[in-house]
Write the structure tokens for this entry.
Amino acid sequence: MPDNQSQLISSEIETEVPRLSQVLVVDDDQASRNLVKKILEREEFVFHGAASGEEALEFLEIEENQPDLILCDIMMPEMDGIEFCARLSLSPRLEEIPLIMVTGLSNMDSLSRAYEAGADDYIIKPIRQVELISRVEHHIEKYRHEQAAKNRIENLSTENESKTKFLGVASHDLRNPLVSIRGISQYLESEKFGPLNEGQQELVATIVQASESMLTLVEDLLDVSMFESGQMRIEPERQPLESLIDHAITLHTTNAAKKKIGLVKAVGNGDTEAEIDRRLVSRVIDNLISNAIKFSQPETEIRLLLESDETSVTLKVEDQGPGIPEKEFDKLFKEFGRTSNLPTAGESSSGIGLYVCLKIVERHGGSIFAENRSEGGARFNVTFNRSIQNG
Amino acid sequence: MDREITALIADDEAHMRTFMKLLLMDLGIKKVYLMQNGMDAVDAYKEYRPDLVLLDINMNVMNGLDALKRIKEINPNTKVVMMTAVSTRDSVEQCSRTGASFYILKTQTPDEIRARLKDAIDSIGLLTS
């Protein structure tokens, strides 16, 4: 820790003592260069002079020569200011340096071409000291801020990438042991190795529940790391959405029964076939059903309605829970966005499930939204296009 | 029907070996050999000739696919179940091309995995108990 701290302090000090700003002045007229040099040096700028565009480009070719600003005369023999400017814009390193054109009143018409070529500002001859310094300072400050912001963004995105990678690796390695813990504890719970007393039953049930919710979280985190690293591949196949619903109902019936909640399916006219990735869409359905169970009071009903038309299939998950607080709709589908509603039986909620749902549905080109039912409770609507290409 | 089915499990994670062994024993298999990598699995296969082999795909030393190839070369009729934590269409196809009979996703529920293992045992058609 002490090491880290001293590093931090020294880097802070470094940024607090700014180096002197460097200005490159490109002008074929030596008297003008000298005048500008005098003004700049009086204000503690470091002056570099070049008598032509070619000479300036030679100077800039060396990577250590990175002025904070370039002042360039627009009228020069051979390469004029506009061509010089155009040449700079070919290099990503040099293009960013702010460039101020110096022009006489008679050349005002060429200014628009200078802007097109990449100039940031202009000063009219004869140069006045106050104006020159204030323009130069303004552009250098702006340039420094932009550079700082750019560096910050670069650092953040590198950090974000490594976070995403870590998330993926950690979740992946956590998943298998959790699968075993859940499986083995479910076996203990089933009393295949002999009867458990009441206390033991309660303990084992706790292990089962905890490992189940951890497993869900780990799966969600894995999915999040996949979306964020752009690695989420979907393998869509045409299949009836209804069969995924049936499978999900089987999986959730036990949990629902523990809270005396009924799971009811209703299918409208027409088949429910759509091009979907079985694993991913099953995760959407699982998330919606387990949410509905979590936030419903005992002895209520959760309805799964399937509707279809020519081009799409829609699943509606309706519960008789408290509904979504009106002010919190915007939180619903955000990463770790939990509403103020609490699970009714102490279940855990990471707030990541609906974010995962949204990402999966979007990846399919479908849509998902939530609403409150007029008769109470919430309704989640998920629509998939029958065909991903046409969607 | 005069001998008991034996099985071999190869997985580099101890908890997975325990879990799968538990499921197999629950399905009536009394003798289960446990190995940590594909190489040991092939050696053990040569020695014990189990009726059923469960192979994790991702293992050090020798992975499950290579072990599957070797075992199928020794006896093409062996029933092999491949196990993985991450499934893609490619990996499923590769396993079945190489001769695997069944495919288990470790994240499936214990009941689903048990059902898949029961199918595998039934396909051997030797169950005595």
